[in-house]
Amino acid sequence: MGSPVVGRLHRVWPANNNRSGHQCRNLQHDFTQDFRGSLLLGNEFNDNASEYYTSYGSNFSTPGWNDLDNTSVQNSEYDNYQRRTIGFFGEASVEWMDMLFLTGTGRYDIISSMPSDNRGFFYPSVSLGFVFTELGALSGQNILSFGKLRASYAEVGQAASTYRPEPIFVTGGGGSGFLSYGMEYPVNDITGYKLSSILYDPKLTPQNTRTIEFGADLRFFNNRLRVDYSYFDQTAEDQIFGVPMAGSTGYSTFYTNAGEMYSKGHEIIFNVSPIQLNSFGWDISVNFSSIKNEVVELAEGVEDIFLGGYVTPNIRASAGDAYPAIYGEKFVRDDQGRILVNENSSSPGYGLPMIGEFGLIGEVTPDFTMGLGNTFTLFGNLTLSAQLDWKQGGEMYSGSNRLMNLYGSSAKTEDRETPFVYNGYKSDGSKNDIERGGPDDQGAYQYLYSNILGSLPESNIHETSFLKLRNVSVSYSIPQKIIAPLMLEKAQIGLVMRNLLLWSTLKNFDPETSQGQGNMQGGMDYMSLPQTTNYGFNINLTF
After folding, report:
1. Cis omega (within 30 of 0) for bond into 457
2. 324: cis peptide before it, omega within 30°?
3. First to last CA, the chain
4. Overall pTM > 0.85
5. Higher model confidence: residue 368 or residue 248?
């Protein structure tokens, strides 16, 4: 009567029970005609609570009846989560002659998901803006219509999302089918428990991110041309990571302040309207950004932290490397970084590359990204827009290309008969001249793609530069004289198309396809869903 099919009933009640509120007071005062100030004070609270009731059942007595009463092994779990935040904030600003703007802010948060001694933390900011075109000699010019310089310093605190001061017990296995040391609980109506494998640092402190930014906003010819430039330098200290622990401790992960990271970058926004006529208009917009992220240091004794992926390859935060980084087995190379080949004539890998040590094999972050937009307006009511995106540099582990090569379905593996010499070097520094393949060596290609390149993560690292026609849209605003009898204020119809064309250094796949989100975004692809081309039609009516 027993069945290996596992039945499961999952009930959550209530999913969420959230409360929040805030109050503030805003004061303004004109000290003189040209000197004004304001003060904002307030506080807020957020209380988030959830309860989870879960029931599992397995080993059906009668196949096909999916009910807990029909299972011989049953287990229930209960979990709850509660987090409360109380914040006090203030902002003071002064303004002089519509030219100088100085603003300072401060916030003090108390968060329950931190150790009792470190629940409260303060983070300030200050910004200064100078509209220099308000100066007498520059005011009212047509060439430089507006000019502003700005600088700011800001700190942002961030607490852990969860914190447990003491290890908790979790079920050692249950009706969900999970096994604990080869046993499925309950056994003889006795439920098994074990300590959670996660340990939290009792001295955990909030993460702090400091940012310094400088910028300029310049507008020319009555805003026909605009340039907005920003430079920022950001340092995140006391980042909260799950640090791996030795299994002998009884735990697998230790949540602590384990990292320091910095980011530096340049961002430019360029807008120009080269043509503005009654019946025709052309607007161009360009967005450019170049950002460098690097892990400065991790917790003592920790060289890198696993963020996602497989045993190999995977995505890691590694001290001294760009963030995020791709790790896996590498080619064996000489002191000059050239790939070495196997010189053992009795080996099936003779004349082919060799699998080396585990280490850094790729960096995900691109050199820069850029977006180019063009908008054309015809006859005042027909608009055509197009967006072109450019990403230069960056790398990805392409598991999908690996599988295509492994199973011989890619164009790269089409020729399986022509003799070849692998592009590598011998240990004495000479160029590889060992010929493989051909009628007398039919297993060479199979061994190369299955046993070496199919198992070597570095061989599947690809650059992900691309140029993509992101969006194309056409819209038409119906003239007012036509829609007025219909009591319509505005009527517009349009056609929208997305992801139309792609030119990329990554073969066969869209480099924006990604296996994961967050830390893994853009760094790994493995049988991921492809990007799609979308077409849409819309109608907007305003009464």
Report:
1. no
2. yes
3. 66
4. no
5. 368
